[in-house]
């Protein structure tokens, strides 16, 4: 990874008064280990330090806890060829590049994203696509990365075309943060690249209602006008969105923008991320507080990606308990009700 590039990024944080010059020396060490980048749009449109802390490096990142892993969700053990992660039978992640618009300080792939870990070679792309072609169980291909929307539109268009042409692939999904952090890059070229005969879905990564300013709303609308449904995934982060009011605002703002909240991720145990961690009991309590208070449309599924590569599991509050043949069901206000089958 290019250290020079990373330090330049730190310098721009200094210029914006996001860090002090005393902090800079320590942060250069962080930047040597994990990439740093904050997009122009984020710098211009975000005033809240709570939101910015998703991108501004912190010295705590050098504090790697014993249970933190360089591959927290076990991508590598499920990678049959470079650029493909095949964990569930019917869908694969396709990761043509490892570059992002921003580098989130809590990223679960932080060991593997950044400049210098750029892009699959043409041969590697061919092998990844061949794997999808010869695996008829694959119903859905999920473009991930890195951020697939960082690819030049012509490159992305070619990949979308090749994947669309595979008969057994019915759904193409994109996991991206670009419409949130660099909405001005949702260009006519990008929209064109996403055209496909197959069903196309986008899942945007967004963690705070403050990230959704007018420019972002407009970018989302452009994508929706192409007939593309948009869902969201968020990460539960200490100091960013770990109270029910903030989650409520986040989910309501997404729905107001016709984006369906899909997942709220419990933070993966990536290296140097413990300062963002919210414990599972608190996460479940937050989800319980939201139930009934906001509509079903505004509810996300709270999930943990089981360390070691066992996949995502819903871990929200448990409303049902059982005693022999008798069930006890808790309603949204916390009252227990007996239920028999
Ligand atoms: C998260 C993930 C998916 C997508 O899971 P969904 O529950 O369908 O959103 C697919 N493959 C891998 C390897 C994943 O980590
Ligand atoms: S945009 Fe996604 S992949 Fe890139 S650093 Fe953020 S969380 Fe990681």
Arithmetic mean pLDDT = 93
Uncertain regions spanning at least 5 consecutive residues? none
Count structural domains: 1
Separation, N- and C-terminal Cα atoms: 59 Å
**CATH class bucket:** Alpha Beta
Radius of gyration: 21 Å
The major sheet is characterized as: 9 strands, mixed
CATH level-3 fold name? TIM Barrel
CATH superfamily: Aldolase class I
Order of secondary-structure elements: HHHHEEHEHEHHEHEHEHEEEEE
Helical proportion? 25-40%
CATH architecture: Alpha-Beta Barrel
* Ligands, deduplicated: pyridoxal-5'-phosphate, iron/sulfur cluster
Determine the strand fraction and express it as a percent band: 15-25%
Number of distinct beta strands: 12
CA-based shape: globular
Instruction: Count the DSSP helices.
Output: 11
SS-based structural class? alpha/beta
The side-by-side strand order for the widest beta sheet comes to 1-2-3-4-5-6-7-8-9
Textual characterization of the structure:
- This protein is of the alpha/beta class and 341 residues long.
- It has eleven helices and twelve strands.
- The protein has helices spanning 3-15, 21-33, 40-45, 49-52, 122-133, 153-164, 178-181, 188-193, 214-225, 244-256, 280-290, and strands at 84-88, 91-94, 140-143, 171-176, 199-205, 230-235, 259-265, 301-305, 312-314, 320-323, 326-330, 336-340.
- The strands form two sheets. Strands 1-2-3-4-5-6-7-8-9 form a nine-stranded mixed β-sheet. Strands 10-11-12 form a three-stranded antiparallel β-sheet, with no helix packed on it.
- The termini are far apart.
- The chain binds pyridoxal-5'-phosphate and iron/sulfur cluster.
- The site of pyridoxal-5'-phosphate has 8 residues, from strand 1 and strand 2.
């Amino acid at each position: 990874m290019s250290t020079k590039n990373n330090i330049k990024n730190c310098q721009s944080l200094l210029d914006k008064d996001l860090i002090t010059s005393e902090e800079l020396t320590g942060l250069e060490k962080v930047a040597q280990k994990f990439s740093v980048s904050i997009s122009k749009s984020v710098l211009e449109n975000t005033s809240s330090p709570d939101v910015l802390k998703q991108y501004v490096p912190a010295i705590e990142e050098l504090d790697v806890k014993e249970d933190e892993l360089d591959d927290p969700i076990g991508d590598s053990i499920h990678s049959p060829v470079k650029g493909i992660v095949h964990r569930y039978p019917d869908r694969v992640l396709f990761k043509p590049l490892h570059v992002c618009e921003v580098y989130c300080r809590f990223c679960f792939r932080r060991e593997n994203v950044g400049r210098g870990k750029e892009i699959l070679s043409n041969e590697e792309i061919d092998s990844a696509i061949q794997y999808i072609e010869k695996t008829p169980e694959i119903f859905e291909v999920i473009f991930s990365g890195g951020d697939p929307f960082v690819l030049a539109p012509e490159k992305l268009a070619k990949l979308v075309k090749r994947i669309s042409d595979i008969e057994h692939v019915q759904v193409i999904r994109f996991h991206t943060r670009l419409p949130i952090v660099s909405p001005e890059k949702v260009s006519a070229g990008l929209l064109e690249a996403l055209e496909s005969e197959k069903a196309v879905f986008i899942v945007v990564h967004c963690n705070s209602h403050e990230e959704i300013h007018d420019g972002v709303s407009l970018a989302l609308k452009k994508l929706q006008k192409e007939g593309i449904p948009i869902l969201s995934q968020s990460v539960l982060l200490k100091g960013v969105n770990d109270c029910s009011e903030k989650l409520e605002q986040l989910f309501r703002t997404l729905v107001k923008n016709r984006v369906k909240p899909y997942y709220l991720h419990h933070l993966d145990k990536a290296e140097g991320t413990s300062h963002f961690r919210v414990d599972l009991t608190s996460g479940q309590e937050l989800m319980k507080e939201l139930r009934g208070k906001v509509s079903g449309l505004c509810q996300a599924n709270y999930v943990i990606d089981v360390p070691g590569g066992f996949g995502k599991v819903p871990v929200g509050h448990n409303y049902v308990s059982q005693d022999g043949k008798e069930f006890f069901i808790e309603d949204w206000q916390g009252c227990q009700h007996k239920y028999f089958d």
